[in-house]
Amino acid sequence: MTRAPWICRSCTRALLNRAQFPKPQLMRFASTETTLAPSLILRAKSLTAEHNELQKTLNDSFDAAKAKRAGELRRVATALEEWEAANSAIAELRKMTQEPDQDADLAAIARDELDTEVAKLESLGRSLSASLTPRHPFADLPCMLEIRPGPGGLEGRYFADTVFKMYRGLCARKGYRSKVIKYDLAEGAGDQSSAEGELPLQEAILEIEDAGAYDAFRAEAGMHR
Q1: Pairwise CA distance, residues 111 & 105, whole Å
Q2: Which of 151, 135, 153, 150 has the alpha carbon at shortest distance from 211?
Q3: What is the pLDDT of residues 173-195, one digit of tens each?
Q4: pTM (2 decimals)?
Q5: Hey, how many other C-beta atoms are within 10 angstroms of the C-beta on 213?
Q6: Cβ proximity of 208 and 143 under 8 Å
Q7: For the Peptide chain release factor domain, which residue ranges apply (predicted)?
Q8: What confidence score (pLDDT) does residue 30 get?
Q9: Rounded to an integer, what distance in angstroms lies between the CA atom of residue 73 and that of residue 51?
């Protein structure tokens, strides 16, 4: 029979503690800052450089085509500038919070501003991504909204009238210039109105004359419930 190796009491206690309480593993959490794909950033920088070159050319001589292109790229250039400024501010604030000799009050202020800038960066990242989305070829044009009732009889016509009034109110609130091209009630229904004052609409056409109205309203197509 072989003898077991001798182990001191301290080593035994250490081994037991290690078995019961394993060494914690370090976990890496995702950063709270918004990260954009490098390809998107390179694309934004390329378009911004094109915008800056066009602006230099337009300062010397005006060209309608170049001015239109510069206007299309202005949104990307502005979004990239704001996104880069937020990143620079975050780097500077993080440096201030990590300096060992930093004043406690200044460090606390820097931490508060850092949280604000990180939240701001997330919104700016979404804006930058949206600015890189190709615009619809009709985005800068006015538009016409055609409203017709769906199934539902008289109640459906009342609802169509509500939708028509909703869009007229939206145009008034947003400052869009609108004009009623057509407003027909259902035949045989007369001017019978609902308790809320809705009329049995057959068809309505609303023209929105402002440039860019198509881009603002093009997602409104389809059935409303």
Answers
A1: 10
A2: 135
A3: 999 999 999 999 987 655 677 76
A4: 0.53
A5: 24
A6: yes
A7: 95-220
A8: 34
A9: 6
